[in-house]
């Protein structure tokens, strides 16, 4: 016996999500059958809305349902700083910290020769245009991830932007707060020693 | 900064699923943004279809998109046996084993005084009607789960059906295949000794 068609299709759809295999997808599908009808309708509409209503901000590349995005429109933010991230979700993480009140720019990836991703595949040319148009920007903070690709991308941006007389900085690397030195990996310890600060 | 509204709504919907918290829901929502548009549309439609097209079989209570369900319509199946399960998904599990070729009946729950669930809240009266109408049935196999509520429900059904001269059986309890005796719990071992078979 096969699952009834609507269930089989829903299982297929759940399985397309990351980290969800056959068993979990089946469990979720049967759970969906028993869900409140309004919740299922809202879920269905929310899925379509993410595709229909969301797009990338024409200025910074952030995900938004309006253009320009909320951050680019907000003139109370510090217009002298641009923080460069790999993905839109990195912006949300930074915003939760509430330490940074400047602008953002999303690269939508990192340089990766293995995957054949060069500078022209990233949202870099629009960053350069932004810097040329807007003389207010004094600092570009590169917040790509601490991976080899992230580091290479940071280096590339630094070489590209510094000649224009704009300060380029990188987020500090070091021990996570609450970490025992005993459990830190060598590379992190190395960076923590290099970046040590006066007390 | 808040998430754009479509993302926030999708995160809410994902969080309504069992075992999915805020972080996973956020990850799934951002993943959905990058998904193939056709896949998202299919997902959205599959959700609606589970609510619109699926209902319970009027004979056995199984989930189906046609009435009666595939199994109740199949006259090649053994019409002398009815296997009673708690939930529709239990039928799918039994069918995968391919040992059983009879009919099914879904209770949609178990007797549970704590949750205030009595016999009238379960799909029991339709089982009795089925047995009265259909003189072919010679055996009712009770396959409720091996929980206190499942056992109590099995006992209740047995007392109800046996006087009609129909054989009532219960799935065997014992050690799982591949289990070390060392790691089996006491209750399972007790059942395994009780149900020992000749070699």
UniProtKB/TrEMBL annotation, chains A, B:
Record bears the keyword DNA repair: yes
Highest taxon listed in the record's lineage: Bacteria
Record GO terms (molecular function): DNA binding; zinc ion binding
Keywords, alphabetical: DNA damage, DNA recombination, DNA repair, Metal-binding, Zinc, Zinc-finger
Residues in Toprim domain copies: 80-176
Keyword Cell membrane appears in the UniProt entry: no
Signal peptide coordinates: none
Similarity remark: Belongs to the RecR family.
Purpose of the protein: May play a role in DNA repair. It seems to be involved in an RecBC-independent recombinational process of DNA repair. It may act with RecF and RecO.
Protein name in the entry: Recombination protein RecR
Origin species: Lentilactobacillus farraginis DSM 18382 = JCM 14108
């Amino acid at each position: 016996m096969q699952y009834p068609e609507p269930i089989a299709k829903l299982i297929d759809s759940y399985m397309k999500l990351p980290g969800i295999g056959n068993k979990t997808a089946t469990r979720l599908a049967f759970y969906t059958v028993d869900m409140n009808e309004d919740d299922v309708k809202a879920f269905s509409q929310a899925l379509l809305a993410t595709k229909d209503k969301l797009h990338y901000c024409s200025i910074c590349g952030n995900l938004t349902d309006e253009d320009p995005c909320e951050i680019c429109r907000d003139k109370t933010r510090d217009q002298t700083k641009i923080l460069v991230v790999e993905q839109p979700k990195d912006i949300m993480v930074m915003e939760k910290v509430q330490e940074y009140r400047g602008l953002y720019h999303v690269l939508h990836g990192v340089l990766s020769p293995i995957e054949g991703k060069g500078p022209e595949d990233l949202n870099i040319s629009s960053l350069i245009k932004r810097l040329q148009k807007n003389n207010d920007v004094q600092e570009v903070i590169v917040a790509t991830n601490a991976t080899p690709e992230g580091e290479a991308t940071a280096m590339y941006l630094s070489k590209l932007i510094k000649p224009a007389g704009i300060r380029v900085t990188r987020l500090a690397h070091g021990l996570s707060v609450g970490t025992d030195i005993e459990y830190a990996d060598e590379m992190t310890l190395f960076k923590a020693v290099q970046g040590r600060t006066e007390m």
